[in-house]
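Q: Hi! First time doing this. I have a protein sequence and I read that you can turn it into a structure. Is that right? Here it is:
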Amino acid sequence: MTEKFKEILAEFPRLRLAVVGDIMVDRFLWGRCDRISPEAPVPVVRLQRETLQLGGAANVAANLHALGVGCGLIGVCGQDEAGASLRTLLGALSLAEDGLIALGGRPTTMKTRIIAQNQQVVRADLEDDRPLAAAETAQVVARLRSLGPFDGVVLSDYGKGVLTEPVLAEIIALGRERGGIVVVDPKKGDYSQYRGVTSLTPNQREAELACALSIVDAASLARAGRLLCERTAAECVLITRGEHGMSLFERDGTEHHLPTEATEVYDVTGAGDTVIAVYTAALCAGASFREAAGLANHAAGVAVREVGTVAVTRDQLERAVGAGRD
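A: Yes, that's right. Below is the predicted 3D structure, encoded as structure tokens:
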């Protein structure tokens, strides 16, 4: 399948995808920990440096950009310092910011992680996850229309209030016009709101919550896959399973189970963003669900070898494909 993967990757520069959803800034405070605080049983981290990276939907866009795929990023941010940092980070990658809707009174979502000796010690989130008002969601849909057309749409749902049920219905209908591909990275909640998408990419825990069952064996895993296909009318569901790889369930009952390509795991931060970026781009390039999942599996194996949020480049993915399983 290596040659097929290379053919799919060769199509990436011809594509243009929309990424709609919860835009974030990932802030990392790096340091060392040598002692426990005398004030409370917590580590004392001596900070040495700070880095900012694109997160959430913006990280999906960064991954698409790194793969050579054209991208329009659509979502909201605040009129604050984090929003200014977001625009700077987008500008550094030459990613357009014309899909950003700046809202007063709502902060830009920022996740701050303190890292000591390459291990995450704590995370602090600054966010407002209230659903957007009707007038604000109308701006999101209008921005998607004005920036199109697109070959496909990625819905990056982190539950921060952008992808409300009404806006999801409009975007899914708009994205599926003329046979377009729409893929969603879902979060908690009723998955019937995603009805009509081409595919979903939940992780195993998200699939368990959505189906109200524990995935403990092949039978329960298959049941979850079938339930999610039925509830969303999706053509396929890709469940990511960490060290157990990925499991693909198509609407016709076909199953494919892919063992992990990761040889070392340092950090899973942003790995789901990498998966949905590669998976959606591959589908838009004409890949089958199995081929798209296989390519995404290789990309995930690259992403988790790095600490922090990373965008896997096309060159990295080509090398991983060449070195991995067929």
